[in-house]
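User: quick one, sequence for these tokens?
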């Protein structure tokens, strides 16, 4: 089994480590457009070989597209075109992108659509690049399969096996529903973290001790603000409508807190906090 991974950053590099270490892949081919990242990935041994995209597609049994979604949307049809040119219906391509509607639509009518499995492994950290790759990143996490009915049974089973090796729990849903759910559980978290970081950085110009006094609570809340803009700009643009709806709801809730605090309404503040505490029943 030869697995080609396009993008040896946090997700792609971590997949490379565990797929090789756990015996799923006999060989890992890596594609990395950035020369610095390519050198780092090669030095770290994330891939057995660093090769051009075309060679990776030609030699691999499974191609993993682990690049920002803006790039992935353009790359996926190219990969399927190359499969078609080779008559290679036994090959499989997957993506790991955080938005699914647009990328699924981009190849909906492609003759080799059945060779593509749309996935989103729900794992990660705020760091990026080859040096962020780590073993065991995916253990116990969920992996979403979007529009799996459009993939061949053989391709779907093989990719279920791949994520099983990574110890991930499969969840199946429509691509549009996926984008709604991720707007609520992932994308809004990043937007609010970015906004909080900007707020504190703006205030810190006058209050030099803010960061000196920052505790674990602040660090955990603002952690996502370290995330890479190359990844998050296309996610927020592609999932624009869903993200805007969630942002509007978030602003409404902030206004409720602001009004209660402005009125020194302790009962209302307590009520809002108790309502928020219900999240403990969902996230433990």
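Assistant:
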């Amino acid at each position: 089994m030869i697995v080609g991974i396009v993008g040896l950053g946090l997700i792609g590099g971590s997949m490379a480590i565990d797929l090789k270490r756990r015996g799923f892949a006999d060989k890992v081919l890596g594609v990395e457009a950035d020369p610095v990242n390519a050198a780092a990935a090669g030095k770290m041994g994330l891939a057995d070989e660093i090769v051009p995209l075309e060679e990776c597609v030609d030699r691999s049994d499974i191609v993993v597209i682990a690049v920002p979604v803006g790039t992935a949307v353009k790359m996926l049809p190219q990969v399927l075109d190359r499969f078609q040119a080779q008559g290679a219906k036994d090959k499989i391509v997957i993506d790991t992108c955080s938005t699914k509607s647009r990328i699924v639509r981009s190849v909906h009518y492609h003759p080799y659509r059945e060779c593509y499995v749309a996935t989103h492994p729900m794992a990660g950290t705020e760091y990026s690049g080859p040096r962020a790759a780590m073993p065991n990143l995916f253990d116990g996490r969920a992996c979403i399969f979007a529009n799996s009915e459009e993939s061949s049974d053989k391709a779907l089973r093989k990719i279920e096996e791949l994520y099983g090796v990574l110890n991930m729990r499969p969840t199946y849903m429509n691509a549009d529903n996926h984008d709604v759910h991720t707007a609520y559980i992932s994308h809004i978290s990043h937007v609010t973290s970015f906004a909080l970081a900007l707020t504190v950085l703006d205030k810190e110009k006058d209050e030099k001790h803010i960061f000196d006094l920052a505790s674990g609570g602040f660090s955990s809340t603002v952690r996502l603000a370290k995330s890479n803009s190359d990844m998050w700009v296309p996610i927020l643009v592609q999932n624009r409508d869903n993200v805007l709806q969630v942002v509007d709801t978030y602003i409404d809730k902030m206004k409720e807190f602001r009004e209660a605090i402005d009125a020194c309404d302790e009962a209302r503040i307590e009520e809002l906090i108790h309502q928020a505490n219900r999240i403990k029943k969902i996230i433990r």
